[in-house]
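re: ur question from earlier - yeah i can do the single chain one, its not a big deal. heres the input i used so u can compare w yours
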Amino acid sequence: MTVQDITKILEELAPLPHAEGFDNVGLLVGDPNMPVKGVLVTLDTLENVVDEAIEKKHNLIVSFHPIIFSGLKKLTGRTYVERVVIKAIANNIAIYSMHTALDNSPMGVNAKICEVLGIQNPKILIPKTGSIRKLTTYAPLEDAEKVKSALFKAGAGEIGKYSNCSFSTEGVGSFKAGTSASPSVGEVGELHLEKEVQINVIYSFEKESHLLKALFAAHPYEEVAYEIVALENTNQDLGMGMVGELQTEMEEQAFLKQLKKTMNASVVRHSQLLGKKVKKVAVLGGSGAFAISAAKKAKADVFITSDLKYHQFYEAEGQLVIADIGHFETEQFTKDLLVDYLTKKIPNFAVSLSESITNPIKYL
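and the output i got, formated as tokens:
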């Protein structure tokens, strides 16, 4: 298998267009056509991780965090980022990053936290906006079902737990074929009226090129009329964070102690305890201060995240308990998620969980 073969499998789990605009995801170092000897999965790509890949004879590193976040103007080995890139290139090792594409995945970082903590029936905490589009096209009456079927097969018409969703209306289309045209119906130079069906379907924006290819292949017309509109609808199956419920409610202090143990956290920083039972829990791996208001709106009893500043704990405002367990600690099980996923997808391929320690924060 090539690097590209494996990254295509990873993008089924976390399509790169789902990443946030500020992020730097995808293949950061290496040739997409290079044959892969083995995959090493890590949270961060540091020099010790590249050394581990060399030792294990793995030439593709799949990393959650991107080692290259902003532009590199020089490669002199002056910084740890430059040294990692130089060593990877020198040893013909490719580096691929997923980061916020996996954060936004309904089966990604936050789903894994929910699984580890036993949070049931999790739903997206902050559904992603701007990711749904509507395609409108027009097909002859007798070809409408064929066109719709092709669009559905390409991934259009999926709304939550429902598929093959569309809306159609019948009408009359008109056109006059020019002298160089080869119309499938009508005559060159003559105005033609055709009974047509207007087909409307929605789709997730990363499927657009595949969808249009399917439309053009299935449509009988030489020139296909279509319109694409970006919708403001939120995507309930895509976005940051998750919220769900514990099987059994717990006392706040007991829950925080269990949280610390389960997540292997050295410390749990939290806001004022409220003396209430914990049943509904919101989570957001990594830096999640921006989701405090969403956790309150979801009526969570506890919100688990990391990287909170002093004044951000005040934002709990007596409505919930905010728990900061550390950045690495919230994302540590992401490696296991990716190894399990790749092992199931390519069971006879060498996929290894990195043993290198990459957490830069130490505690006394």
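The first strand starts at residue 26 and ends at 29. not sure if urs matches, ping me
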